[in-house]
Amino acid sequence: MSLGAFSISLAVQDLAASIAFYETLGFENFHDGREHNYAILKNGEAVIGLFQGMFDGNILTINPGWTQSAQAVAGDFEDVRDIQTRLQAAGIEIATPAEAEGTGPASFMLTDPDGNTILFDQHVPKPGS
Prior knowledge:
With 129 residues, this protein is an alpha+beta fold. Helices cover 16% and strands 36% of the residues.
């Protein structure tokens, strides 16, 4: 089962300096949101989100229903609410749960055993809705 697109969301101090640094490493600006203090950069299938002043610490981000190119998955995918239910049934604590009902975009957060934050952030409607 595919969880969806994967990226690293980095909390940065100086967005322009971080963009320049990652571009020097070979990343290309995929989505420039500087006016909103963020940018998404890509190198092949690797995706890095740079966010200035939006959150503390770095976050692993999973986007159910999206490809690595931020396009809706063609066909069926596991909805974020179903992933949340499955993880809760397996005994994983959800730090910030999504509403269980609904069909639109939703998100939830959890923390891995080492304290890393993982964000499941679905931008597309639930399959079949």
